[in-house]
Description:
- By secondary structure, this protein is an alpha+beta fold.
- The protein has three helices and six strands, in the order ββββαβαβα.
- A hairpin with a 5-residue loop joins strand 2 (14-23) and strand 3.
- The model has no long low-confidence stretch (mean pLDDT 91).
Amino acid sequence: MSVSSYLVCPSRQLMIGLGKRLREPSGTVIGYSIGNHLTSEDPQLTQALWKFLADTAGSRLVVKFSDDEDFEEIAGYRELGGDEHGDITIEDYVRTGV
């Protein structure tokens, strides 16, 4: 099972998926991927990430992984790019925001 990564704003109960974490043999996270490409190579996701950073400026942000012990706490947050009721697509977020 692959581990998903998210940038989370707890105060707004909002998160954006970063993709699968990529690690060095030492365990250090060195990037993220979606499918067979780096997340940073996806222009629309990169645009959404910058918008997310602007929209949450001044708020505490944290990177969470789906295998973190406390992930269930944030699993119900609204997700940008998610497919659950109440989530918002990346396209809509970039175009209109939350």
